[in-house]
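Hey, I was hoping to borrow your eyes for a little while. There's a protein on my desk that I can't quite get my head around. The fold is given in discrete form, as structure tokens running alongside the sequence. I'd be grateful if you could look everything over and explain what you see. Here's the protein in full, and shout if anything looks odd to you:
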Amino acid sequence: MPSYFELLALIVPVFALIAIGSGARWAGWISPDADSSLMKLVVNVLYPALIFDAVLGNAALSDHRNVFWPPLVGFGTMVIGIFGSLAIGRALGFSKGHGLRTFAFAAGIYNYGYIPIPLMTGLFGQESIGVLLVHNVGCEAAVWTVGVIVVSGVSLRESWRKLVSGPVVALLLAAGGNLVGLDEAMPEVVRTVIKSAGVCAIPLGLITIGATLTEYLRKPSQLFSARVTPLACGLRLLVYPAVFLVLAKVLPISPELKRVMLVQAAMPAGIVPILIAKHYGGQPLTAVQVVLGTTAVGLVAIPLWLRFGLGWVF
């Protein structure tokens, strides 16, 4: 089993790339105007290329359990987090109009892409990424339906439209390609271009995230809330990891999906609630307090949960 410091070594490069993005923003090398363009490039081109390359021809996806269960688990764990945070936040005095909905969404959504992908690769190899990305379809569904409805109260029909995206199209194309043997027929030069684009997705995405978060670092006194930050860390990095690891141990799922759940259990809050809170009339500062607090504490907590999970789940 990897030691704590070996697991920490897998995480440090992820946070280092975020720090590089932040440093580039402070230096003026990445302007605020570039954030939207860079994120569109990542989400619409590079991340779909990563998904397509990881799913097409992936032997793990020949197991039907790795097609049916991963999206269901992704959706279910997100919903558990959102409604669990909503109930606990309400019980502890949060209220609508004063951060309850944004807190519930931000604390309930774990980082399901940019941090776990390099961790899965380091722990279990490149072939493990395919199941993770199928799992993430369920996460996306939860974010753009349950999550958006909780934050804004928009209709289910309106929120579902967000699921028609580059990553989902890439997954469907790759899954369909597996059925017809596209992996064998695709010219090597095409596969090389797709692989090269996919390799750029995570580093550029993390750098862009670091640049985006820097806008909030300019007022450091607002980044910590005595109400929001400790509760978010307690839920996201203590309560939910325990729940997810129990589910990973008892559910009738494949070993590949157990590995995904083990890594996702340890994750801090995802950054997407900040963007959604901005767009749908939530409270972005509350989301920032959740994301930055859980990410900072996660640098210490993630290796601990991974080490415990590796020894207990398997």
Remarks:
- The chain has one domain: 4-312.
